[in-house]
Amino acid sequence: MKTTYPAPVEQFRRQVRTWLEENLPDGWFDGAEMPPEEREAFRASWTEKLHAAGWICASWPKEYGGRGLSPLENVVLHEEFARARAPMRADWFGDTLVGPTILRWGTDEQKAEFIPKILRGEITWCQGFSEPEAGSDLAGLRTRAEPRDGGWTINGRKIWTTRADEADYVFLLARTDPDAPRHRGISYLLVPMRQPGIEVRPIEQLDGATDFCEVVFTDAHAPEGCVVGGLNNGWKVAMTTLGFERGASATTGHRRFEKELRKIIGMARERGVHTDPVIRQRLAEQWTRVQIQRYHGLRTLADTVNGTREAAGLGQLNKMWWSETHRATMDLMMDILGPEGQILAGAAAEQGAWIPGVGMRNGRADYPAGVEQRAFLFSLSDTIGGGTAEIQRNIVAERLLGLPRG
Questions:
Q1: What is the CATH topology of the domain spanning 125-237?
Q2: What is the DSSP secondary-structure string of 93-112?
Q3: Which residues are catalytic?
Q4: 96, 128, 213, 223: most buried by Cβ count inside 10 Å?
């Protein structure tokens, strides 16, 4: 079903679509797989093209290098890049999370230092929120930041820090007033990663990927002007960051699940189980849930465009919905594969494999799982990352249903 926006916005859509058709490599829209060496060359040149055209961070104000797109224009931009399967961001954490946060809360000096580098893709970021004993209960974090030598000294540990082994900076939460109430003694800091006081320990997962890391801070240093949004105001700033994370793909988030489900339906047909009444019912249920996710996105978009704020708690509801839907879809896929799904049929040490809905992941020589198996394994984390399903239910109960706090 096609969603139509006002005429000026649809005209902007045609502009974006034309640019993509003229700038993507020959054969891109035919769906041909790009050889690894060509893919690397494409990725290297693509960021430069995006920056030159002004598509990176296009919703940012013009005075900071963006295009000043309206919310609907920004949605259309995302939709067209998703339709074309074209990569859109130089750095997810920089473009979508910390960059907008600095624009909202940062000082003029922080904006001048970081915003141009984010736009040009010159620095990469990771997010230091979760800790070994403070994951979904983020306010329970123990990492400390203390003023020292004209800056801050940081001690503590962060975990499940995506791409920490590649990042130049981390935006992290640290306790700066241990005597304040849990939510009030926290600050939001921008900390350089490449220094002796920071140890990054990659966490190898079952399929061999090491996207997640543990990060240990031992007298790590951050400059005096690294605090964003004011001292001990980090909780409020962090909630802004998480709002950007959950709102960036309102009308496009469902697309990868639709594509994945089409592939699974094809598997069912190939194996002759698509006529099985139980399998048919489960496929229909998952298709319905993906469409509901699409409508959740449209509701979020309407709430944003109209400024009604009628959907308090909708971000948590959406996250809970898609994560549980995806896990159920992956369970269905494994049932369709049957005994075949239990055989390690992947290439040994499959380096740089593209996992649909996940991205590039390295393989493991002694556990050569196939692409479908690795997608299934990764889906097990869906209901944990970004806030566990249990925590999301509590928030929905309180904000949407008006139930008393548990």
A1: Butyryl-CoA Dehydrogenase, subunit A; domain 2 (2.40.110)
A2: IIIIIIHHHHHHH--HHHHH
A3: 245
A4: 128
